[in-house]
Every structure is written in structure tokens, then in C-alpha cells.
Design brief:
551 residues; alpha+beta; OB fold (Dihydrolipoamide Acetyltransferase, E2P); 5 domains; 5-stranded mixed beta barrel; 19% helix
Length: 551
Amino acid sequence: MDELEFRRLVKYVAEKSGLSEEEVLERVNKYIQEMSGLIKLDGALYLVASDLNVELPMPGSPVHETIQIGKLVPGMRRAVVEGRIVKMYGVIKYVNKSGEPSERLEFRIEDETGEAVVVIWSKSMVDSLRDKLKEGDVIRIINARVSHSYGELSLHVDSSGEVELIRSSQGYPLVNERVYTVSNIPMKHGEEVDVKGRVVRMFEPSTFERQDGSLGRRSSFLLGDDESSIRVVLWGSQADNVTKLKVGSQVLIRNARVVIRDFGIELHSSPRTKIEVLGETEDLYHEFKVLYRFEPEVLSVKKLVYMDLLVQSDSKRSILRVWGEDMVSKLSSALLPAIIRVKGTYSRDGILHLGKSGSLELVEEGVGELPEGIARLARQVKYKRSWIGESSDGYREFRGTITWVSERARISWYCPNCGSRVEYEYDRFFCPNCGEIEDAEPLLGFSFMIDDGTGVARVQVYGRRAELLLGAKTLEVIEKANEYGEEDFSIPLDFLSQELVGKEVVVRGKAAYLETGMVRVILDEMEDADLREEAEKLADEIERIWLNVER
């Protein structure tokens, strides 16, 4: 036996027994000393293996050469890989190519070089391993096929493969379970996460027709914490899980996929997703004093009406957004200041929301006097003034110089049923969720950039606000694009670029920090910068930071 094969066998015995390689070698040397050199290294190693109940390969049999996960290449076959199970997805039901129900076992492994998803397809192996493997186990996979899908490596094991438990776990990362709250979910499209939160609003399951004519199902709900909330979308057989939930349920969602939309982040289910109900919390009534109301708004795609209010509770001022025509109508005619009692609020993007499933009672109107400059105060509460280079996500106000305007304004099309962006081809609309649809909602948009010396923000302008800046309605833009023969429904913006570039402006809207280092703003309001007012704000900031003076 040469030295290389001996070392491989020592490693094999160590892994199978749970001892270190040094401890195995000590036992080998002890046998050699006890037998006064009458036995060789390989013979002593076989005795040690026998003592440890480890069955060694027959002399001359090959010892599998393992490959680190970081060195795996899609297309490899008969790969041998070792790693620690860091996420157990369990047995997943599916329909095989023959149209029959079947099961597969999925889990994720890691070593010091990377991670990969393992899929066991062999029915006999699934049955033997379903209750045997657990998170934290270190395993060896033999004869795996390597592929790359959904942005990650995967190892596929059929009846020709093997999965072995390794007792020794030296050199493998420990399982570090990470459960996110809603407000700290990573902004990484496709990332699979575990999230804990509270159900704050629910939507009924619905059926839709896919592009191939087949029927699909989906449902959704809003999941929140003390700071924010996001939409969770359940697909296929997962859609009925929403019936097990109710507003106030504390849940843990495992293995949900992060989806980045134009207007924020969502969680989408996959076959691996599981939802655990941890308990229930009771909604309480809260009283607020309404000091100011912004103009009602309509969410462009789904025509949802909402209104933002400046409210006060225990001397703390915040923004409350109420949804639905009934609530908006009730508050539009109320004499301010007014006292309201609400139930079912949740936080999202730094402001409170009251959805249609909540309740609102107008308790009293005309209570006292409104503070001076209430409109300006309301905007200061809703939009936190910030330097672009120091901004965080949320509703923000920036002052800067417009340095660029997009070359064209474009029409995007959205599904009126689910709100997803749709494709327009051959005079037909195709939704990725609902398939072919008769009509779609047009949304006019363009963008420009502002620079304040600390960073650059890309300001995106949509709908009514885009119409105001362009001086044209959406239908007029579509007609003009048709006149120009523009198949992508766009028009040039040379005139607007000449008007805006070089202007000093104040923009307000919903900001998000992108991985590229740029800040994106969905525009709510824009006005020319008042140099006197900006100079006063700068003086206030200098006094606050350097002189510790608060005005």
C-alpha cells in the first residue's frame, strides 16, 4: 500500500468513527509497537478499523475522491461530495413524468467553500432517509449529478447513488439558523429565507388561467412586524394555507423566496415552503387626533383609493394611511382636528396603514385649533429630509440638481387582476400569472437623476405625476406613440430635458437604497428649491451637528 492510499484510508476511518486522523494514527502505531514491528501499517490500520466497527474497502478497491462544493461544475456526473446539512426541506410531493404522484427528499449542504441543494429522487432512498437525516449531520454523497438552476448549485441523486453519514464533523461549518423579521429581509432576488411575523391582512384564494390554458391558484396575505409589512404570495397547492390563518396570527414562514418588484419586496412560496402558526394576538383599538389630510390618491394599477393623515397620539406625530373609498369618504368631509378610533393598523415603510379589513370610527370633529403651518409640518413628518449619500429606505425628501432626464417616456402595461407587469405582443397582452388577458392598465413613466454632492438618486415618475410634468395625458402619449410608429409606446423627451436639466429642486417620495449604490425614489411631489429656505435648513443642521443646538 502506498503512502497516498494509506492516508486516504486513515481519513476514511476517522470520518466513519468520529475520531481525528491523529487519534487513528496513534492507535495504528500502538499496534505496531505492541507487535514489535511484525505488522505493517496497512495491517495495523485494518485492526484499528475492526476495533472501531469500521468496514474498510477491500485491498485494491478505490477510495472515493471527494470534491469541494466550490469546485463543482454543472454537468459533472458521479461526483462525490461531503458537507454538513444546514437546511432540511424534507420530503416534497410532486407529479413525475408519467403523471403519477411521487416524492423527493431535499436538503441543503455546506462545506468551507460553498453550498448546494441536494435532491434525492430514488424512492427507496427517500423512504430510508426521511427520518434518518437531520440538520447538523455531516454526510458523504456518492455518484451525484451536478446541475445549476435558479441561481444555485444542485446535486441530484438517483438509485445509482449513495448517501453516507460521517461521524467526524471537523472542518465543516456549524448550522447557523437565521430567522428574519419582516423589516430586515435581505433585498436579494431569489434568496430563500425564514421569516417570522404577524398576519395583518388576508386575501381570498383565486383561480387564474395560465398562458398554456391550464388553471392555477394563488392567495396572499400581508405579514408585518413593528416596523414594516410585506405581501406573501402562495402558489398552487400552497394557496389553501391561507385558510388556516387569521388576522393576528403569529407565523413562521420557512423557505420562502424573495421577489423584488418595481415597488418593493415580496415573499413567494415554493414547494419547499412551510408555514407554522406560533400563536395569536388580539388587535386593540387606538385613538388618534387627525391634524392634517393629504389629497386622496389612487393606486394606478388596481384603482385602490387611499388617503394619508397626519395623526397625533400621546404627543407623538405620525402618518396614518387609510385604504378604501368608505374610510376616505368619511374622513374627507370631517372637520379637523378630529378624533378617530381605529383597529387593525400595521406598519409599512415607516408609516401606519389601516386596510379595508380594519375598522375606523369618527369619534369627534372640530376639536380645538390646528397648529400653525400644519401642511408643512405634515410633510416634514411624512418625508424625512436626508442627504442622498446618507439615506435609508422609506419616505424621504431630497434637495439636488437635476443632471439627466431619460430620453423617452414609456407606457408599461399591468394586469388589472394581479397587478403584475404584462407583455404586449401581436396585439395581445400576456400576464406571467394570469396568462392572456383581454385588456391591461397603461402606466406612463419616465425618470431623471438628481445630485446633491453626497450621492445620486434616480427619480422615477409614474401616472398622474408623469402626466403633470409632461403636460399630456396617458392616452395622448399612446396616440402620439402610434403616430410616430413606436411599437414600445414611447415618445422622446428632448423638450423636457432642456427644461429640467440644471434645475435645483426638492423631491419627495418613497426611497430605496439599491445594491449598485444608487438611491431610487418613486416621486410623490417635486418643487423648485427655495434658496432662502434651504439656507435656513442648512444653518439649522450646522447648529444641531456642530453646536448641539436645537431650534
